[in-house]
From TrEMBL:
<dbReference type="InterPro" id="IPR040764">
    <property type="entry name" value="CvfB_WH"/>
</dbReference>
<dbReference type="InterPro" id="IPR036388">
    <property type="entry name" value="WH-like_DNA-bd_sf"/>
</dbReference>
<dbReference type="Pfam" id="PF13509">
    <property type="entry name" value="S1_2"/>
</dbReference>
<dbReference type="InterPro" id="IPR012340">
    <property type="entry name" value="NA-bd_OB-fold"/>
</dbReference>
<dbReference type="Pfam" id="PF17783">
    <property type="entry name" value="WHD_CvfB"/>
</dbReference>
<dbReference type="InterPro" id="IPR003029">
    <property type="entry name" value="S1_domain"/>
</dbReference>
<comment type="similarity">
    <text>Belongs to the CvfB family.</text>
</comment>
<dbReference type="GO" id="GO:0003676">
    <property type="term" value="F:nucleic acid binding"/>
</dbReference>
<dbReference type="InterPro" id="IPR048587">
    <property type="entry name" value="CvfB_S1_3rd"/>
</dbReference>
<dbReference type="Pfam" id="PF21191">
    <property type="entry name" value="CvfB_1st"/>
</dbReference>
<dbReference type="InterPro" id="IPR048588">
    <property type="entry name" value="CvfB_S1_2nd"/>
</dbReference>
<feature type="domain" description="S1 motif">
    <location>
        <begin position="155"/>
        <end position="222"/>
    </location>
</feature>
<dbReference type="InterPro" id="IPR039566">
    <property type="entry name" value="CvfB_S1_st"/>
</dbReference>
<protein>
    <recommendedName>
        <fullName>S1 motif domain-containing protein</fullName>
    </recommendedName>
</protein>
<dbReference type="InterPro" id="IPR014464">
    <property type="entry name" value="CvfB_fam"/>
</dbReference>
<dbReference type="Pfam" id="PF21543">
    <property type="entry name" value="CvfB_2nd"/>
</dbReference>
Length: 315
């Protein structure tokens, strides 16, 4: 019976070979367990030991008494230990060594790829030549473990891990806590305040619970709350600017608003509208000014910063 990397076997201690370790046997084949892979007291010849089979740094099959965080075919959330630009990500698997998540498994866009400390849901597989690798766990694997979002979660802030991230949006495994494994959710691109990495920890608000129990999410506050926070942030931004003016208004492109303030153009208009109703700001052309600036100062500032406005329009 041949050994299979990524599985756990109970094997007999056949012999000790110093200075390397112990050879373990299943009756037909044997495998080396290095001294560094021992847990607890040293075994005796003839003892039965439970070990995990893996490939060592020289791609030789080896055994360890240490317990991995997952085995062949199993799903787990593993932390990114390191990132290699040509190979992919190396994940902590509980053995003092890492499991490779190949570059082919990562998003094409670099800004969506994991960084050290992020945690990704993966399944342990064999590559084409039999080595152990991680494969991203997608909807078909995760959907068997999730539970429907309770109605009481609607409009609540939750946390979770990004399981897949695309231009159209980011899929999130929402923490299940004591209830279970988790809830599957989606943050549409319009509801993201920034690009989200695969494996990133994210906080979002449940905006809608679908019939299938999945949740739509948003990283923004409810409009009435967000409007106040956005207005305060915009007002503070303007107060820090020379002359109290900024080259952004209702006429500014949505992409520029998103890049500058991290909010949608609709949210920007609501926030500025609030400030205008409170007579804290005014607009003149493509510029917005603090209301305590005189018209003459506004014109002077507009002329002085016309090049800045052109730069903003060209972003």
């Amino acid at each position: 019976m041949s050994f299979v990397a990524g599985t756990t076997e109970t094997l007999r201690v056949d012999r000790e070979v110093s200075p390397y370790g112990y050879f373990l046997s299943n009756g037909e084949s044997d495998v080396l367990m290095h001294y560094t892979e021992l847990v607890g007291s040293k075994p005796k010849i003839g003892d039965q030991v439970e070990v995990f089979l893996f490939f060592d740094s020289e791609d030789r099959l080896a055994a360890t008494m240490k317990k991995p965080l997952l085995q062949l075919g199993e799903l787990a959330r593993l932390q990114v230990a390191d990132v290699h630009p040509r190979l992919g990500c190396f994940l902590e698997m509980g053995l003092g060594r890492q499991l490779l998540l190949p570059l082919s498994e990562l998003p094409e866009s670099i800004e969506y790829r994991p960084l050290p400390g992020d945690e990704v849901f993966v399944v342990m597989k064999h590559d084409k030549i039999g080595r152990l690798v991680a494969k991203i766990a997608f909807e078909e694997e995760l959907s068997e473990l999730v539970f429907p979002a309770p109605d009481s979660w609607n409009n609540q802030w939750v946390e979770g891990w990004v399981t897949k991230t695309l231009q159209l949006g980011s899929f999130v495994m929402i923490d299940g806590g004591v209830v279970g494994f988790g809830v599957y959710g989606l943050i549409p691109s319009a509801e993201r305040i920034r690009p989200l990495r695969l494996g990133e920890r994210v906080s979002a608000r449940i905006t809608f619970i679908r019939e299938d129990g999945r949740a739509n999410l948003s990283m923004a506050q409810r409009k009435e709350v967000g409007r106040i926070e956005d207005a305060d942030r915009i007002l503070a931004f303007m107060k820090e600017r020379p002359g109290g003016g900024m080259p952004y208004s209702d006429q500014t492109d949505a992409d520029i608003i998103k890049q500058k303030f991290g909010i949608s153009k609709g949210a920007f208009k609501r926030a500025v509208g609030k400030l205008m109703r409170e007579r804290l700001v005014t607009q003149k052309g493509s510029w917005t000014y603090l209301a305590d600036q005189s018209p003459a100062v506004q014109v002077e500032n507009a002329d002085a910063h016309s090049s800045e406005a052109e730069g903003a329009d060209g972003q």
